[in-house]
Amino acid sequence: MHADIRICRAHDRPVYTLSDVCPKCDEPTANSAPAPFDPDDPYGEYRRKLKRRERE
Ligand SMILES: [Zn+2]
């Protein structure tokens, strides 16, 4: 079964956790599924911007 990775955005960098609360600030975390980026690919957004520029 796929474990839900949850995310706390109350930091400079999003904190990922499997817990319902952030281990750093104890705030409730949100499901990371709708996140517009891949946490395993921190440069994905940068690369997509480059691609977009190439098309123009
Ligand atoms: Zn937090």
Task: Walk me through what this model shows.
- There is one protein chain.
- The chain is 21% helix and 14% strand.
- By secondary structure, the chain is of the alpha+beta class.
- The protein has one domain (6-55).
- The chain is elongated, with a radius of gyration of 14 Å.
- It starts with 5 loop residues before the first strand and ends with a helix.
- Bound molecules: zinc ion (ZN).
- Zinc ion binds next to loops.
- Keywords: Ribonucleoprotein, Ribosome biogenesis, rRNA processing.
- Belongs to the NOP10 family.
- Involved in ribosome biogenesis; more specifically in 18S rRNA pseudouridylation and in cleavage of pre-rRNA.
Judging from the principal axes of the Cα atoms, what is the shape?
Answer: elongated
Strand content: 5-15%
Terminus-to-terminus distance: 42 Å
Strands, total number: 3
List the secondary-structure elements in sequence, H or E: EEEH
Structural class: alpha+beta
Number of domains: 1
Outline:
Belongs to the NOP10 family. The chain has one helix at about 45-55, and strands at about 5-10, 15, 30. It is of the alpha+beta class.
Supply database-style keywords.
binds zinc ion; 1 helix; three-stranded antiparallel beta sheet; alpha+beta; 56 residues
Secondary-structure blueprint of this entry?
Blueprint: E1 6-8, E2 15-17, E3 30-31, H1 44-55
Antiparallel strand pairs: 1-2, 1-3
This protein binds zinc ion (ZN).
